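QA checklist item 7 of 12: single-chain prediction sanity check.
[x] sequence parsed
[x] length recorded as 84
[x] structure emitted
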Amino acid sequence: MAEMYCNIYYSHSNQELLDKLDSLFDESTVEKEKFTGIAVSLNSNNGAELVESLFEACIEPDLDLGVGAEFKRIEGYSVAHFLH
């Protein structure tokens, strides 16, 4: 079985928006409704549509989008580590 790793590094000058972005990668937000709510709060025009597209691309959203313990902040950047 092959494994694929992916890291996403991001930052935002607005701490409130950064916290919302971080919450997208919290294990509890893999539920589509919660994920959509956060996305819409970040982007009211396209958030729901983007989540729909993302979930359609995922075979198993819990596995594909959940990062669990592999999430941290380093020197002002949030880092989400995914293992597929």
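[x] summary fact logged: The mean pLDDT is 85.
[ ] second reviewer sign-off
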